[in-house]
Amino acid sequence: MHLSLSTTPEQAIDRQALAGLAAVAGDDPLFLKEMIGLFLAQAPRYLEALRNAWVSRDPIAIGKAAHQVKSASFYLGARRLSELCAQTETSLRDGNASAVTDLITAIMLEFEMVQRGLREIEEHGGKTRAPSGCS
Q1: CA–CA distance from 53 to each of 11, 62, 66, 93, 133 (Å)?
Q2: Which of 126, 114, 131 is nearest to 69 (CA)?
Q3: How many domains does the chain have?
Q4: Is 68 within the bounds of a domain?
């Protein structure tokens, strides 16, 4: 199984998706900053639940935690993280334990990049400007 992970915080976040979320709130950067703050506060708990569920070999809890991270990360533009969680759900349904192990490791690594990317945006007041060098 080949897992595609972000190599930079900028790659970890789809800024167009974030801009779309901001547009729903009338382009209010405070709204986006609050959403990012909530995600950064809650996601580590979901990831800890995911880790604990895997250690205890509880497929229902693994699926629940993966689903929570998948949904929240998708809306904040962390599409790779969301996709890794979706793959985890699929691998659980297929009974592919070795894939689930690899995916959980990948989720933890990808979350590090997502967290860094979102913190950078949060530090810029919730502005979703494209990284320099991008048009």
Answers
A1: 28, 5, 10, 15, 41
A2: 114
A3: 1
A4: yes
